[in-house]
Design a protein that fits this description.
The protein is of the alpha+beta class. 49% of the residues lie in helices and 14% in strands. Strands 1, 2, 3, 9, 10, 11 and 12 form a 7-stranded mixed sheet that branches. The chain has a 4-stranded antiparallel sheet with strand order 15-17-18-16, sandwiched between helices. Strands 4-8-7 form a 3-stranded antiparallel sheet.
Amino acid sequence: MSTFLLEIGTEELPADFARLALPQLEQLVRKDLDGLRLGFDEIRCTSTPRRLVITAAGLPERQPDLEEDRKGPPKAQAWIDGKPTAAALGFAKRCGVAAEALEIRDTPKGPFVFARCREVGRPAAEVLAGQIPQWIEALQGRRFMRWGEGEIRFSRPVRWLVALLDATPLAVTLPGSDPLVAAGNISRGHRLHTNAVSIPNAEGYVAALAVAGVTVDRGHRGALIHQAVTTAAAAQAADADLPEELFEELIDLVESPSLLEGQFDAHYLALPAEVLSTVMRAHQRYVPLYRQGRASDPLALDARDSLLPRFLFISNALPEAAATVARGNERVLKARLADAEFFVRADRAVPSIDRRDQLSRVTFAAGLGSLLDRTERLEWCTDVLLEQLDLPAGCGDHARRAAHLCKHDLVSQMVGEFPELQGVMGGKYLVAEGEPREVGLAVLEHYLPRGAADALPTSAAGAVVALAERLELLLSIYAKGERPTGSSDPYALRRAAQGLLQILWDRAWRLDLLSLLHRSALHWAQLLPHCGVDGEALAAELAEFLRQRLVSLLEEEGFDSDLVQAAAGSSVPLGRVLGDPEDARQRVALLAELRERGELAAVQAVVTRAARLAEQADLGTTVLSPAGVVQPALFEKSSEVGMLAVLNELEPIASRPSSDRYAQLARGLSAGSDALAAFFDGDQSVMVLAEDPAVRENRLNLLAVLRNQANVLADFSRISG
């Protein structure tokens, strides 16, 4: 068995390209080897900033021969008077056999001509050589380019290829490359090593490049970086600020990772920690060092108590150049921090209220006015939310003030340079000007959550403004006629809708979101007459969109899909879902708990049996009391009395909200199983569809009320058995 090696050597690749390309390359090679009858034991992909590498171990020397039967024309068309016709001769030629070798076989459609074809397997080296250019050209990524006079496109120019089957170079050229790239066994080492690297065989590839200063295995480079950062941070009694995104990028920026340390002037610790860490991480790919045991204050105006005036970085340089590289990085960081210091000083010279006025000069979106217009709409949403939420007066004052000022930092110099600090700088600037900390914190938190796994607002005022911000965005973008699609969501409307629901659930706030949407949509129709907004249609469309996001969120949390659909799916009235999203979540959680305890099936059996017949009743789905719709005088059997007793017990539970009414309702439905069994199957059972119309209607109403009471908890018809 043989080992195949392909190395695609390039100029420096973008750091994110390997993470996109390697899964594609593995899938292409795996699929084609299977289709080409070349079995393998293992396929491995890896990369460095200058190469993509794939190896396949356990390949045979050649394809196995392929024998197959091919069906040809009917016998009547293939043979006449015992001689092959042109149809038979043509079929035999296509199959590569003599006409005398054709066979006649019976089929369900009559006798047909068949040929036994044998395709001799080709050498693996020949097959692989033909596939390599196709694999390279099939890779997809962002910002591909052409180079020289060639037509091939790739992330960066391809400069060399290594293609080996064990020690044998494969005869491969890359069509469309300029200059023409031909494969061989010559690779290149670390970019600061000028000598070519001869690869003795596929198995010796990693070792040969290690001698040339290249750690080929991506996972090994990651382990080296992680260990070096952890050890260095511990030596400084610090915590390394190394998020996963930066860690993955560092792996793809170096071929021979070495950790170096640098420092900066301590007077820059007068800047906020978020500014310093953003400069280091986002612009320079450095690893900031936070003091262990530091107190966390998101509104701190300086970093003296949180950051060390030191940083770590991963270098690709040779060891003898370490001191020079460290000094160079310190100089670069000093310039960056000096810029940040200037931005903060310039921003602090302008009152935040004046910056708010400057928002009028910045367009939010076509047809939706300026950022100041957006802020005023957001303030309206805040007022409406505060009307519906039972919050302390002080919290409301802080939320209104925060909504008034929440976007002021969008025109600050610091946020202009570092957009990821929006909200953070706005809150800090306000506190520095003497605004209450609650206001500053609400401004900082109104952007939360920024994503599915992000933190949620910790303050009530921040949560209110965050809700208002998302509500305004959804209403405005929908009003101007834009919708998220399967491949595009430029305004992050899905994230906004999910954030709105996550905040409500986190705070356990009871909010009639459906009525809020209707009221807001009508207001938006007045605010934006040029958009031709139909308020009712806008509210209905947004409500359905929010229902979809609610269902998606619950399923992502791990709740079974059928339970989510039963409590919040399309068969459940929107008022039962968005009238109180917290209520909908509690119902799903209870159903999941009942299923886990093995109690759901009993409840479902009661409801399902009643609901099947209740579909024939004329009773509305909102009737929860048997009073006035069930006539005891028409009862003929004691089982009907028993059913009415169950309904009377369930009616106050289903009708009046309480903290545990759903659990009580589930217990009551389960307890009603005996009464329902007697109604249908006991010696006092009844024929529901009786001949007497009044009796029939009375019995159907009994079942319909039971169904309606159960629907307060869920649509049990959507639950799998």
